[in-house]
Amino acid sequence: MERRDRVARQTSLKEFALIAPRLVKLLARLMRDPRVPSRSKAILVLTAGYLVSPLDVIPDMVPGIGQLDDLVIVAFALDHILNRVPDEVLREHWDGDEDILDVIKQIVDIGAGLVPRWVKRILPG
Fold first, then answer.
1. Strands (E) located in the chain
2. What is the pTM of this model?
3. What is the C-alpha separation between 82 and 106, in angstroms, rounded?
4. How far is CA 2 from CA 6, 8, 9, 16, 74, in A?
5. Tens of pLDDT along 69-93?
6. What is d(CA 87, CA 58) in angstroms, rounded to the nearest whole number?
7. Is residue 44 within 8 Å of residue 74, measured between CB atoms?
8. pLDDT of amino acid 17
9. Which run of H or E residues covers position 2?
10. How far are the Cα atoms of 8, 43, 77 from residue 48, in angstroms, in the given order?
11. How far apart are CA 100 and CA 117, in angstroms?
């Protein structure tokens, strides 16, 4: 019984370690899927452009909060994609465990809930 628990725990840790690469793969696949709305694809492109741009609302040099603008933009984009693209399309393109995708959706919902209202009004929803 103990060995089974250890194997299950290692599997869970491996799944969590693979979240970032799987998210990138999911987003790339969604960009090619014709069922994904053009607006959602545009938000992904703009987010990627903002992240690679040297210009930031809050400079990255500012200790502690320099990456805050990046996190807000990423949370907004993921919230938009995960809540507006049909669930069956997301699951079709997701490589990991179904449970992990649900956990990601919950985390993104919590993160998006922390974004101030005035920021949400600025960003297209």
1. none
2. 0.68
3. 10
4. 6, 10, 11, 21, 39
5. 787 788 888 888 888 899 899 989 9
6. 34
7. no
8. 66
9. helix 2-17
10. 35, 9, 10
11. 28
- Tokens 């725990």 label which residue? 9
Residue 69 has what pLDDT? 77
Q: What is the pLDDT of residues 37-59, one digit of tens each?
A: 999 999 999 988 988 888 877 77
Q: Which residue has the tokens 């399309």?
A: 89
Residue reference for tokens 């990601």: 104
Structure tokens at 52: 């690679």
Residue linked to tokens 């920021």: 119
Mean pLDDT to the nearest integer, 117-125 = 65
Establish how many alpha carbons lie within 13 A of residue 119's alpha carbon, considering only the half-sphere containing its beta carbon. Answer: 14
Would you state the pLDDT for residue 34? 95
How long is the chain? 125
Q: Please state the separation of Cα 95 from the chain's center in Å.
A: 15
